[in-house]
Design a protein that fits this description.
mainly alpha; 13 helices
Length: about 270
């Protein structure tokens, strides 16, 4: 269930903390330490060490899976488990009159999902566009997301969007173009579904979470709020800077206490 952000869990739902598994916490800290140490070897003169540093996420998943293979059962470490093999079959989304009635009932919620999906996706695209120095056209992003979700509807896919965490992982791994973020990723997912799904059974979920956290940590902008604060008394565009500062704090506090979705809507 959605019980809010991390601070809400600590202060209003402390009983949820009883579900913490010590073994999972220790493994997560080990994964975090491994990624931080491996990152330092990117400039190593040894070609083997440098390659291991470049593919540290893959190496981490292999090591963590081997550990979970032996210890997940007795220690209760959550793993990915069974992954359906092969591609999903294509089918028309509306098969009967009941499906059509259900689709009409879902229209208001679908509009909200579409709005949040576009806003979060465009924010992610703008973030990396500013970082890399290129332009993002909102219309193109909207059409691309619409086409992707329309195609996904015929195979039962979840709503497609640009994820900050996934883009953060790609950026931290050195991906620089659409070929790496789209074509190669799609190819790897296809290979996993067709041939490697039995081998990822024991990959710990906490290891995946650590990879996401480390990848997304480079996207934090705490220095930006200090910059906005320093410009609060400037004469030019003072109202703009103050407004941006308020929006930053609203998004930060709403996300911290109420969750990511309410943080986006609040901002």
């Amino acid at each position: 269930t959605d019980i809010g952000g991390i601070m809400t869990i600590f202060f209003l739902h402390p009983t949820e903390l009883r579900d913490i598994n010590p073994a999972t916490v220790i493994l997560s800290l080990g994964c975090l330490a491994f990624l931080h140490v491996a990152k330092r070897f990117k400039s190593s003169r040894s070609r083997v060490v440098k390659q291991m540093s470049e593919f540290k996420e893959v190496l981490l998943l292999v090591i963590a899976a081997l550990i979970a293979w032996r210890l997940s059962g007795p220690l209760g470490i959550a793993v990915i488990g069974d992954v359906p093999r092969g591609f999903p079959s294509l089918a028309w989304p509306i098969q009967s009159g009941e499906d059509w009635v259900l689709a009409q009932q879902l229209v208001p919620g679908a509009v909200m999902v579409a709005l949040v999906t576009f806003l979060s996706s465009f924010a992610a695209a703008r973030k990396f566009a500013l970082k890399a120095g290129y332009q993002v056209v909102a219309t193109n992003e909207l059409l691309g997301l619409g086409a992707a979700n329309l195609a996904g509807a015929f195979c039962g896919a979840v709503p497609t969007q640009i994820g900050l965490s996934r883009m953060g992982i790609a950026s931290s791994m050195g991906v620089k173009n659409l070929l790496g973020t789209n074509v190669f990723v799609a190819g790897m997912v296809a290979i996993v579904l067709l041939a490697l799904s039995p081998y990822i059974y024991y990959v710990p979920r906490c290891a995946l979470n650590v990879i996401i956290i480390v990848g997304a940590s480079s996207l934090t902008e705490f220095k930006h709020v200090l910059w906005l604060w320093s410009l609060r008394s400037t004469r030019t565009r003072q109202r703009t800077y103050v407004t941006d500062l308020i929006v930053w704090w609203v998004a930060f506090l709403f996300t911290l206490f109420l969750g990511a979705l309410k943080g986006i809507l609040g901002a």
